[in-house]
């Protein structure tokens, strides 16, 4: 990628309503990453949001016919061509939504290899927060993406909450997840250590980078 090319962040929002808390969470995560990138480097940043509710019929047709309509193909190309991905789903029956899963079923299982991904979900109750670890993280691990350490779950009661002395509020979790995505895109770990990556690294560079991020989850 040329040095002057903008960094591209794509956020996939699988909310069904309008307005949607799922879309709002996707927007806030993307903005947190964009702000951190703007503060840390002078490269342009482009953000695109893919709303799956607008593609629901196209997704169903593609699953049946095997041929994506133009709008769906554009969305798939945006996701696979992005530098970083944010994936947000509402929780249905203690898992990701069928629309969310159907869209990512259309992504080739090597197309996201090494791509940093922030996973997030919205729900009516905090009891479903483990959907991030039990459903979304394994899904993107299968797609060979690098799932970042901080995942964000927003229950209805989290909106407008600043947290307390024992727990982080939603805004601080959003900032932390956005910061991790920005760090991944600029070749830094969350701690700020630089990652020297050159064109000579090739595909083998994916493993050390993924290991760096995995180590951060333990520390």
Sum up the structure in keywords.
single chain; 219 residues; alpha/beta; 7-stranded mixed beta sheet; 7 helices; 7 strands; disordered C terminus
Write up this protein.
The chain is 42% helix and 18% strand. It contains 7 helices and 7 strands. It has helices at 21-40, 56-65, 70-81, 98-105, 131-142, 170-185, 206-218; strands at 7-13, 45-51, 84-92, 95-96, 116-123, 146-147, 152-155. A hairpin with a 2-residue loop joins strand 3 and strand 4 (95-96). It is globular, with a radius of gyration of 17 Å.
Topology pattern, helix = H, strand = E: EHEHHEEHEHEEHH
Uncertain residue segments: 190-219
Tell me the distance between the termini: 32 Å
Strand content: 15-25%
**Which bin fits the share of residues in helices?**
40-55%
**What is the averaged pLDDT score?**
85
Globally, the shape reads globular
Summarize the structure.
This protein has 219 residues and is α/β, with parallel strands linked by helices.
Strand-helix topology:
Elements: E1 7-13, H1 21-40, E2 45-51, H2 56-65, H3 70-81, E3 84-92, E4 95-96, H4 98-105, E5 116-123, H5 131-142, E6 146-147, E7 152-155, H6 170-185, H7 206-218
Parallel strand pairs: 1-2, 1-3, 3-5, 5-6, 5-7
Antiparallel strand pairs: 3-4
Helix pairs in contact: 1-6
């Amino acid at each position: 990628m040329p040095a002057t090319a903008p960094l591209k962040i794509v956020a996939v929002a699988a909310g069904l309503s309008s307005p949607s808390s799922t879309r709002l969470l996707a927007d806030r995560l993307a903005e947190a990453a964009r702000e951190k990138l703007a503060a840390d480097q002078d490269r342009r940043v482009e953000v695109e949001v893919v709303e799956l509710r607008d593609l629901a019929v196209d997704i169903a047709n593609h699953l049946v016919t095997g041929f994506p309509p133009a709008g769906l193909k554009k969305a798939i190309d945006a996701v696979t061509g992005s530098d970083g991905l944010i994936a947000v789903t509402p929780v249905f029956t203690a898992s990701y939504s069928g629309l969310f899963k159907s869209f990512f079923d259309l992504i080739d299982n090597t197309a996201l290899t090494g791509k940093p991904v922030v996973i997030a979900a919205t729900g009516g109750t905090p009891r479903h927060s483990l959907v991030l670890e039990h459903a979304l993280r394994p899904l993107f691990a299968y797609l060979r993406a690098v799932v970042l350490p901080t995942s964000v779950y927003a229950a209805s009661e989290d909106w407008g909450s600043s947290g307390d002395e024992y727990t982080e509020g939603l805004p601080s979790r959003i900032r932390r997840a956005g910061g991790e995505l920005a760090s991944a895109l600029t070749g830094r770990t969350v701690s700020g250590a630089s990652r020297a990556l050159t064109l000579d690294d090739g595909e083998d560079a994916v493993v050390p980078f993924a290991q760096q991020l995995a180590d951060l989850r333990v520390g």
